[in-house]
Design goal:
Helices cover 46% and strands 16% of the residues. It has 424 residues and is of the alpha/beta class. The protein folds into 3 domains: 47 residues, Transferase, Pyrimidine Nucleoside Phosphorylase, Chain C (Transferase, Pyrimidine Nucleoside Phosphorylase, Chain A, domain 3), CATH 1.20.970; 212 residues, Nucleoside phosphorylase/phosphoribosyltransferase catalytic domain (Pyrimidine Nucleoside Phosphorylase, Chain A, domain 2, 3-Layer(aba) Sandwich); 89 residues, Aldehyde Oxidoreductase, domain 3 (Alpha-Beta Complex), CATH 3.90.1170. Strand 4, helix 11 and strand 5 form a beta-alpha-beta unit.
Amino acid sequence: MLATELIARKRDGQAHTRDEIEFLIGGITSGEIPDYQTSAWLMAICIRGMSEDETVWLTQAMAHSGATLDLQARWPDVVDKHSTGGVGDKTSLVLAPMLAAAGCRVAKMSGRGLGFSGGTIDKLESIPGFQTELSCQDFLDQVERIGLAIASQSAELAPADGMLYALRDVTATVDSLPLIASSIMSKKLACRPGRLVLDVKAGSGAFMKTLDQARRLAEAMVRIGGAGGVRTSAVISDMSQPEGCAIGNALEIREAIETLQGRGPTDVIELCGRLADALGVPQARATIASGAAFQKLMEMVDAQGGDVDAIEQPERLPRARLVRELPAPRSGYLRTIDAEILGRAAMRLGAGREQKREAIDHAVGFVLRAKIGDDVAAGQALLEAHANDERKLEEALALAAGAYAFSEQPVSSPELVKAIISAS
């Protein structure tokens, strides 16, 4: 086979065979196919798309491009959860301990945040001493010992994905459903849990802005999971406003702790319950009231070298020097809160990164004091900004002010769960 011929086939709208896709991924991983040809192929996919079969074959080839962890072979009922990302998305921090406390083994590899969407690994690293980089053996040993591990993604797993994503990021080929679905699911199939639930966000603070986009992505990923022998379901959840109230790494750890202690925002608790239900673990809901989920979080933090005292005393977590409120410019009902704007404003404070290697400030971010549907008075705090730089604080507050719109008439809060997609 010749890469140029396969690029031309996709350019002309023709479908690849499984062998052709395996040839391309093998050549990309080995370096035999250069970046300029890979980029041309990615652009052809972005324009011409891929069939359902092609997307499944691409994902499987990427999953087997490096080492694999067949978790399902070790523990048939091991579970995993993945979110497509959103502003204030802290469900992994709450759901994983809930599931482990309910008797599941939870083996989760997570990523760092990029752009306005935060990453679970960044959030966990705001706990003093917490180690997110575990060897594959240490990761497996911890899941065996305490039933729960959340670690950064191993470079050994699905290396083709890392290579393709680096090129997509600089060639305007990120927004392609087959490429998004295969990127997410290749890492999951490389680990191969027994059950997987996908939290697919839809709305202003998500990468999928519409329900239709989110549904198509969810259906594609559920189909890929099933073809790879992983029982997969997806919950399409609302991201028209931030999840919970906290945005920013240490602030979200605090909110996750409060949630596991039964004092968290109702939307976070409800979403975690719905995700547990989709996994077939409804008993996980009771682990918050019993205190078992909070204890499981403490076990994980201790096992990964973190300061357990910072979980029992969240004031030990990183704290910002400056705290300032954003007052409501008028009275009325909150009609919209643009989550992406708040996510980008949090980036101005230093809570997120534009480039993967940028450092972040774990202490900074926002705490919302009102959500969609709330009746607020002029001058009342819409949010609380936490910052370590006066100039960044002013810029972030000015940007955040543009996220809010008001109504004189009562407004209903958005429906939290839009749809549930299960394997047929």
